[in-house]
Amino acid sequence: MMLTPAEVQALRFARAPFGKRGYDEDEVDQFLDVVAQTLIALQDEIAMLRLAASPDAAYGTSPAAESQMLAELDRIKQRLTRLEAAVQH
């Protein structure tokens, strides 16, 4: 199951019982906002990389252009794989 930015933003922690120590709610909320913004940025970057990896990208038709396009696609796929792994953790 993949965690979404909306799920992170909606998450709320219960208050610690009276007399018990707990987390500062404001700090937790601020951290969750940072996590959600990071997930949004990663999802946006993944979408951009998927779009850039489209075979419709115009590189020309020469063998050199095709080789350049394939090398660029390999770099994009590697970056996409790393980003997807980061989002899943």
From TrEMBL:
It comes from the Bacteria. NCBIfam families: DivI1A_domain (TIGR03544). InterPro entries: DivIVA_domain, DivIVA_fam. This is Cell wall synthesis protein Wag31. Keywords: Cell cycle, Cell division, Coiled coil, Cytoplasm. Pfam families: DivIVA (PF05103). The keyword Magnesium does not apply. It is found in: Cytoplasm. The keyword Cell cycle applies. Its main location: cytoplasm.
